[in-house]
Amino acid sequence: MKKFFLGVALAVSTFLATDVHAHFQLVYSPQSNTEKAGVKPLKLLFWHPMENGHVMDMGQPEEFYYSFKGKKTDLTPSLKAVSFNGLHNKANAYDGAVKLKRNGDYKLILTPAPYYEESEDIYIQQITQTLINKGGVPTDWAEPLGLKTEILPLNKPYGAVVGSSFSAIVLREGKPLPGVEVEIEHMVAEPDMVQNKPSNTKSSSIPGGALSVISDANGKFTFAIPKAGYWGFAALGSGPDQEYQGKELSQDAVLWIKAHELGE
Description:
Blueprint: E1 16-17, E2 24-28, E3 33-34, E4 38-47, E5 55-56, E6 63-68, E7 71-74, E8 80-85, E9 90-100, E10 104-111, E11 115-117, E12 122-134, E13 149-153, E14 160-161, E15 165-172, E16 175-176, E17 181-186, E18 191-192, E19 197-198, E20 211-214, E21 220-224, E22 229-235, E23 243-244, E24 247-260
Parallel strand pairs: 3-12, 12-24, 14-24
Antiparallel strand pairs: 1-20, 2-4, 4-5, 4-9, 6-7, 6-10, 8-9, 10-12, 11-12, 13-15, 15-16, 15-21, 17-20, 17-22, 18-19, 22-24, 23-24
C-alpha cells in the first residue's frame, strides 16, 4: 500500500486504486472556522476514517504545537491519554486543546510516534497538519512551515467549497517533490468529542480501493471536492526518514481540509 514513486510525471486528475483504505492520522477539531476566542478541544487519533474502521494505538507524540504568524506554541501540556472506541475495536488516542486569541490562522502540527504496521512489517509516521481560522481573517495559511515533509495548500484549507477544486504542493525539506502518491479520504463519521467514539455508524468505500493522485513534476496535485466535510490528504513516503528501529519507515505528510456547501 505504501509506495513511493520517483520521477513520475502523471496527470494529477488521474485517480489510482490502492488495495485497502488508508491509515490516517487525525488532529480533529469540530470547527475549522470560529469567531469566538477561547479554548477549543482537539482529538488526536490514528484511524481509517472513510470506512469508519479499525483504530490504531497512538504512542506518546514526538511533537505537538500550533504555529501562529510564524510563532510556535507547544501544545503537549494539553494532551491527555484516552481510549477511542471505534465500531470494531478501541485504541489509545489523545485529547488536547488550543487557546485561540487573536484573529488569523492557527496551524496545528503533530509529529506522532512511529506506528508499527505488523501486516506490512513497516513503521508509519504521519506528520499531520490541521488549520483553524479565527475571525475570518486569513494570515499565513499558504506559507510553508519548514517541516521534514508537508503538504502546502494553494487554496484555503478551511474555506473550500463543494464543487470547487483543491490544489497543494508536496514538500520534502522545503522542496517540491514530484511523483508522490497522495491518498485521499473523506471523514464519514466525525469523532464524538465527549464519548470518544464515532458520531455515527456510516461507512464509505470506493470501487477499487482508496482514492489517490500522483504529484506532478512540480510536486503539485489537484482534487475536485464532491462532498462537504473533512477531507484528508496523505503523501506517502514523502519524508526524508526511511528507516526506524531497523525497519522500513513510511514518513508521510498529512493535511486535513474542511469543505462547505456554498451558502453555509
